[in-house]
Write a structure and sequence with these properties.
There is one protein chain. The protein has about 260 residues and is of the alpha/beta class. It is built from ten helices and nine strands. A six-stranded mixed sheet has the order 1-2-3-4-6-9, sandwiched between helices. Helix 1 (about 25-45) links the parallel strand 2 and strand 3. It is globular and about 65 Å long.
Length: about 260
């Protein structure tokens, strides 16, 4: 299997499993990843995605397209539209919180996958790389959108045009990573974060993600309206009632979804 899936205590662990090619994405991995994300969204309350071996994900498997390059230029429009974009859209809209455990290089489309997650944890030896310019392409897999909104146009241009490696400490400093861990404790730390999400109010967490993403490119008036609407909906939810009761009773809340 190009993608491994494990469910533990309502936390889905998704492992990109092509370590011999640094977990580069081919059509098989893309299809399996889309299927796994659907399963996770239906049965888990949080998700962790990581890579097998020494890398998180090296991006598109250009070697798999070698025969196409020898015949003619591959249909990159079709590949991006059919293989990469659905994965990014699925991650960014998954009905559960997501954590990327970046255990090694995250380059090209692999960077897009990491950025599409809600939280990113990195090992101190991992790095992010917007490598597209090295092969005469532009960033895809949502990278132009995520980078610009997360670090601003200036830093996004620096990363995209130079294709330089962004180490874990720099990534944390500019907001691309939440925390940095030694390799031996990264996955445990990511699972701990996800476990916290899994015991939380899933509907409120996902609504928070949706509002923050919308607010990043909208107006204050739109944000105020969206906040009021979601607060009105969540204010009638069982989780809010339970949260208030737990607060008043000075006990941990028992959220149901």
């Amino acid at each position: 299997m190009a993608v491994e899936y494990q469910l533990t205590d309502q936390v889905a662990l998704v492992t990109l499993n092509r370590p011999e090619v640094f977990n580069a994405i081919d059509d098989v991995m893309s299809a399996e990843l889309r299927d796994v994300l659907k399963v996770a969204g239906a049965e888990a309350k949080a998700l962790v995605i990581t890579g097998a071996g020494k890398a998180f994900c090296a991006g598109a498997d250009l070697a798999a397209l070698k025969s196409e390059y020898q015949r003619e230029v591959p249909n990159l429009l079709g590949i991006v539209t059919e293989q990469f974009n659905p994965v990014i859209e699925a991650l960014a809209t998954l009905p559960i919180p997501t954590v990327a455990a970046v255990n090694g290089p995250a380059a090209g489309a692999g960077l897009g996958i990491a950025l599409a997650c809600d939280v990113r944890l990195m090992t101190d030896s991992a790095y992010l790389m917007c490598a597209f310019s090295r092969v005469g392409l532009i960033p895809d897999s949502g990278t132009t959108w995520f980078l610009t909104h997360m670090v601003g146009v200036g830093r996004a241009l620096d990363m995209a045009l130079t294709a330089r490696k962004i180490g874990a400490e720099e990534a944390a400093a500019v907001g691309l990573a939440s925390r940095v861990h030694p390799p031996e404790s990264l996955l445990a730390a990511a699972m701990e974060v996800a476990a916290g999400f899994a015991t939380g109010p899933t509907d409120a967490l996902v609504a928070t993600r949706r509002l923050l993403l919308a607010a990043s490119c909208g107006t204050l008036a739109e944000a105020l309206s969206a906040e009021a609407s979601e607060q009105g909906r969540l204010g009638r939810s069982p989780n809010h009632v339970e949260g208030v009761a737990a607060f008043i009773g000075k006990r941990p809340p028992q959220f149901r979804s």
